[in-house]
Request: fold
Amino acid sequence: MRTLYDRLKFLFPLGELTEQRPDLAFVTVPAEHLRSLLLHLRDREGYTHLVLLTAVDWLEDGQFQLTYLLCNRAARHDI
Reply:
């Protein structure tokens, strides 16, 4: 996953990588770059399956966070 992260970090302003397991990693992406990153992951990196989409809100702060879990079935990796 580190190799993928390094490739993506060259193209997009990403937050820190958190590797939960060898096949599962998390990274924070600024909202304005989300669509282009998702398209890149789908079209160029093989992450074609959306496993999960959820949100957390902080109503008192007027903020929310979206969490996407994408799967590359061929590589058996989730991000």
Observations:
- The first strand starts at residue 18 and ends at 21.
- The chain has a mean pLDDT of 94.
- Helices lie at 2-11, 31-44.
- Residues 3 and 9 are 10 Å apart (CA to CA).
